[in-house]
Amino acid sequence: MSASEWLNWQRFAAVEPFGAPMLDVVQAQLRAVLAEIHRDPKARTEPFAPQDFLLFARPVEPSDAHLVDGLTAADWRLAMYLKALQARQQSTESPTAGDPATP
Question: Which residues of 29-67 are buried (b: 16+ CB within 10 A; e: fewer)?
């Protein structure tokens, strides 16, 4: 597959999603319907929603959920990734990196 064909498929997927994420949505709708059919209204008063049955969806972080120094968990993950990447680059730049004879 050429790079241009790959980009065309990415553009198409942005307009018309397909694949595992879409199958998960379709199956979540079916699961919600089945759960609603068998739901005991006395035990559970609120109805089921398809979002309750998404297997591959990531939980959405509230935008006001701040951690230390006003950073969200996503910001911390990015900062830790960049810090590890920087350390890795510095270790490959040193002339004795990976040399077992070097103390």
Answer: eebbeebeeeeeeeeeeeebebeebbeeeeeeeeeeeee
Spatial CB neighbours of 64, under 8 Å, sequence gap ≥ 6:
none
Contacts of 46 (CB under 8 A, 6+ apart): none
**Full-model pTM:** 0.47
Going by the DSSP 8-state scheme, the letter that residue 46 receives in this structure is S
Cα separation, 22 vs 28, whole angstroms:
10
Cα–Cα dist 13/65, whole Å? 31
Question: Which residues of the chain have a pLDDT value below 70?
Answer: 58-69, 94-103
**Contact predicate 75/69, CB 8 Å:** no
